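User: quick one - fold this with magnesium ion bound?
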Amino acid sequence: MDPHPVTAPKTTEPARQAPAAVGDLFGPIQPALQRIEQRLQAELTSQDARVDEVVRHGYRLGGKRLRPALLLLAGEAVGELTDAHELLGVVVEMIHTATLVHDDVLDEASLRRHVDTVNARWGNERSVLLGDFLFSHAFYLAATVRSDFGDAATACQLIGRSTNRVCHGELRQTLSEGDLSLSSADYYDIIDGKTAELCACCCRLGALFSGASAEVADALESFGRNLGMAFQIADDLLDLTGDEATTGKTTGADLAKQKMTLPLIYTRDSLVNGPRVSLEEWLQNPSTESRAEVAKLVEAVGGFAFAQKTAIEYANRAVADLAVLEESELKQSLATLAFFASRRDA
Ligand code: IPE
Ligand code: IPE
Ligand code: MG
Ligand code: MG
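Assistant: Sure. Structure tokens for the protein plus magnesium ion:
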């Protein structure tokens, strides 16, 4: 199968509506998620009051905790949850937060999780170091995992490779800034690395540490990857159409950094002559006004609808990956989570 749907996707509507809030889907794993939350808070402290404030900042109000939730849901869909899943849930959330702290430096973003970014409050130097602190702490913890189904070396290897691919995706993206001719194939590869990879890793880890067969672990990894693709395409839509009060983070950052995302790529390729020149001029001169003007052009050619359909197509692929699992409440939660990823407002 073609890894990426570069032509117009067939599916237009999700099989079921996304829930109002992602937390609604975490019912079966809520107690384990709460313990992960407590462990995160316990791990991320410092005796130095000023360092303590910076370290804790990334956790204010929290995020959606999607990555630990994926790890737990995949684990419970396959077998029993153990302490190893909770420890690995802490690890993947730390890695994710580290990538956000560094990403906000790259994007010069000022708002994250409804509060100032670390770079806005303490500057880029502290942000780089906080990201490093989170990455290194995550690997220190991963090295202590114990389980009947997997060892620390396996966990560290999988998480290390994925983290490396995330950084590779982010590097490719920064090197592509300003490239208004970026192909859709390159776009899909970049988001596969920077976002889908960690979601895939979480699902593989959860499954493996519950004793999954190679076939089931591969299928759940693919589920996580397809969900992650849907998630990032939806995120790229929100950058153009969302509002900061709801997303809790800086919008318009992709435009400001001249990042070609799927709605923009589709619009560029749909326009010719004058309108295409106008689009390129707006993209080359980012401003609040250009966000509105670009959004009008994207809307007019169906660029938002195309990106939304493509995200839903990835969610459908994710659901198809679940065919290896018996019917269960957990399987249903995973399927609904895939549709949440593709259609969300935060
Ligand atoms: C933000 O991830 C970065 C992307 C991959 C788009 P989330 O939207 O999961 O961020 P939090 O953890 O909920 O804040
Ligand atoms: C970055 O993508 C994803 C990461 C690997 C951190 P974005 O730059 O779109 O993420 P947001 O919108 O800042 O959360
Ligand atoms: Mg960003
Ligand atoms: Mg974004």
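One thing worth noting: Residues 239 and 251 are 5 Å apart (CA to CA).
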